[in-house]
User: Fold this.
Amino acid sequence: MKNLNIKLKITIWFTFFMIFLTLIIFAFVMLISNTGTINQVQNTLVNIVDENLSEVEYDDGEIDIDDDFISYKNGVTCLVYDKNKNLVNGFSQYEFLNPEPFVDSEIKSVVYNNENYFIYDKLIIDSQQEQDIWLRGIISADESSIPSYILYRAMLITFPILIFFASVGGYFIAKRSLLPINKISQLAEEIGNSGDLSKRIELNNNKDEIYKLSIAFNKMFKQLEDNFEAERNFTSDASHELRTPVTIILAQCEYAFENAKDEDELYEALGAIQKQGYKMSKLIESLLQFTRIEQRIETTNFLVINFDELIHSICNEFKIMDIKNIKLIEELQEGVKIKADISLITRLIQNLIQNAYRYGKENGNITVKLEEKSNIIILEVSDNGIGISEEDLPNIWNRFYRADKSRGERKGMGLGLAMVKQIAEYHNGKVEVESKLNVGSTFKIILNKNNY
Ligand code: ADP
Assistant:
């Protein structure tokens, strides 16, 4: 059963279900028809005996039976007995039932030689003659089983036909219902073979389960396509970023070997090489960190930390550096605790504050705010610096994106915010930004305590 395909499994289940259902229906019908016919047979028995009541009487000490007396009708045999319970009238094929005790006005069920009979006795009291007469009606219970027998025969004939139609019908229903799934698996195979993730499943008009499945698959294909595209871009961007320092290093080396006249010129070249070396090492370090977070290698370091205290200590480090004479204001709600990876969350805060300094104005302000409201923690870093244009705003979270390219400044590598976003999402949080060119920017990190 395990290795059967779904079509056959559905067919088998469906057929079993139909057999089960049919058996229940037949059993039910038999039960109802049996009870119905038993009642009917008993009613006939009582009616015929009752009809005969007025046809039997004592006349001059003799039992007088009218011509209208019904001896046999509709399977009911009627017999007359005197007070001593001796049969006085009627041919009885049921002599063996004579010894059955007489009980007035009661239907009795009697079994003789594995045959079932119903007996109904009626006592006729003649008060003048002081002699009683017993009237007995007998009917074979088989009379009631005839309809059941017909039903049983009908069932035997229809049952195999029904099973045949149930299995053929079940198979076609299963085949038809699974047709769209076949299409989906075909497409998945095509994508697997060609590697073309731009293909999508055609959606039908019925908004059924298959429609939902197709939407989910299309969404997954789109996500995979985007991820592959992002990976491709990332690799090409990273190579591009590394190419510049490598070119400079090689150029400096060539210059030093061929043209350096004295030690000073050699030192100058070495200094340029070292600068590019640092840049490359920083870039490689950042790339490694990205990979580590993506692969979730650092998952084990989640600890409960005092968030406000951590932010305060990072702010202090920046204050000591006294960059651009910028004033760093802290508005931190006390006692805010979060469960986080301390090194990653430190990196996130540092990146945001570093950007605020980097893109802040000389003598400007930076405000770092922390508040917690009903389990939602919001960290806000605002500055009154150069701001970001509306057109750049949606892209700043992308790796290697630098909005200030056009402004001629290339201070960072364009990885800081991408990392902030990645770290926030890693902590099940989200990022938001509001910014206006030449007015300033506000970066928000929203962390939900319920999410971990
Ligand atoms: P970078 O290393 O270039 O700073 P980021 O990923 O940190 O890279 O930032 C991406 C771009 O977003 C930056 O190049 C900069 O143009 C813009 N940006 C980031 N933070 C700020 C800010 N506080 N004010 C203005 N622009 C910002």
Q: What stands out?
A: The first helix runs from residue 6 to 52.
